[in-house]
């Protein structure tokens, strides 16, 4: 049989021997690898920290944003804070992940407010353990809701309510005739972007509030500026500044770049020249800016 195969393929005796040697070498190599894997070989185990010990801090913001790093593995920077209007960056300093902080900001954007410490515990992204850690540092100014619903005597002796929209939640704003859940949510969202209303006329900037709607609701609204959150122009970051509605992102970036290059602002004229702002914009932003 073998001789027929050799004759068919025209294989010489020396070539045949060579083929047999190669076959046995291949078999030996295969058997050796199998034995080595079972008896000797052990997979190399390592962590990212061992390979990139100096990169961990640089990578942490990316890990946080992806939501793959739990709050237990981060070192929290605890400080006294009011959860209402707290920036995304500050929530993350307190030990929350990017996704957790973003969830809280979305809750506020929809009109949510924290009236007492325990309200924070109702957020599904805040575990019992995290709440116990943060609870001693939560400071929410006590607001007497009844104080913000001031009865006023209208025409024909009819009592109406006058509501301070800088200090109440969306459900309270809905007590005003003509304001439903949608309008209340938009007003709260815009108020939080501003930091608070300075005058009633700013409600005209809220989507859907035209001259007729404004005329309907304005008699029942009052403005208490003690609840306004002002902007420290010499300390604010771009993340905190980005939600402010009266300036474009480019104008905000230019203002902060000028501060970085030339130092702290001393007056409004420096801000106007830095970003080439017109008088209309300056009139809008001036009440919100403080120099500290």
UniProtKB/TrEMBL annotation:
Q: Which organism is it from?
A: Pseudopedobacter saltans (strain ATCC 51119 / DSM 12145 / JCM 21818 / CCUG 39354 / LMG 10337 / NBRC 100064 / NCIMB 13643)
GO terms for biological process, alphabetical: protein secretion by the type II secretion system
This protein's GO cellular component annotations are: type II protein secretion system complex
Ordered alphabetically, the record's keywords are:
Membrane, Transmembrane, Transmembrane helix
Q: PANTHER family attached here?
A: ENDONUCLEASE/EXONUCLEASE/PHOSPHATASE FAMILY DOMAIN-CONTAINING PROTEIN 1 (PTHR21180), ENDONUCLEASE_EXONUCLEASE_PHOSPHATASE FAMILY DOMAIN-CONTAINING PROTEIN 1 (PTHR21180:SF32)
UniProt-listed SUPFAM superfamilies: RuvA domain 2-like
Tell me any Pfam family this protein matches. Answer: HHH_3
Answer yes or no on keyword Membrane: yes
User: Transmembrane residues, as ranges?
Assistant: 16-36
Specify the protein name: Uncharacterized protein
What InterPro entries does its record include? Answer: Endo/Exo/Phosphatase_dom_1, RuvA_2-like
- Source species taxonomy: Bacteria, Pseudomonadati, Bacteroidota, Sphingobacteriia, Sphingobacteriales
């Amino acid at each position: 049989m073998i001789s027929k195969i050799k004759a068919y393929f025209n294989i010489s005796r020396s070539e045949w021997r060579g083929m047999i040697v190669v076959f046995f070498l291949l078999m030996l190599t295969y058997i050796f690898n199998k034995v080595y894997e079972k008896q000797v070989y052990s997979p190399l185990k390592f962590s990212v920290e061992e390979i990139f010990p100096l990169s961990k801090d640089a990578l942490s913001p990316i890990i946080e944003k992806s939501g793959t790093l739990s709050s237990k593995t981060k070192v929290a920077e605890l400080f006294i804070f009011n959860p209402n209007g707290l920036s995304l960056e500050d929530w993350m300093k307190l030990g929350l992940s990017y996704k957790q902080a973003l969830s809280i900001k979305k809750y506020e954007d929809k009109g949510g407010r924290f009236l007492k410490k325990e309200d924070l515990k109702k957020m599904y992204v805040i575990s019992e353990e995290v709440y116990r850690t943060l609870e001693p540092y939560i400071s929410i100014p006590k607001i007497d809701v009844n104080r913000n619903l001031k009865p006023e005597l209208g025409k024909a002796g009819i009592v109406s309510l006058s509501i301070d929209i800088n200090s109440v939640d969306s459900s309270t704003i809905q007590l005003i005739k003509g304001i439903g859940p949608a309008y209340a949510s938009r007003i709260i969202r815009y108020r939080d972007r501003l930091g608070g209303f300075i005058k009633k006329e700013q409600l005209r900037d809220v989507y859907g509030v035209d001259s007729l709607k404004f005329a309907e609701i304005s008699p029942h609204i009052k403005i208490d500026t003690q609840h306004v959150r002002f902007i420290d122009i010499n300390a604010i970051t771009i993340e905190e500044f980005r939600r402010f509605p009266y300036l474009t992102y480019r104008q905000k970036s230019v203002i902060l770049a000028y501060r970085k290059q030339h130092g702290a602002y001393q007056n409004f004229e420096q801000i106007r020249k830095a970003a080439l702002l017109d008088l209309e914009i300056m009139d809008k932003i001036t009440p919100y800016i403080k120099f500290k």
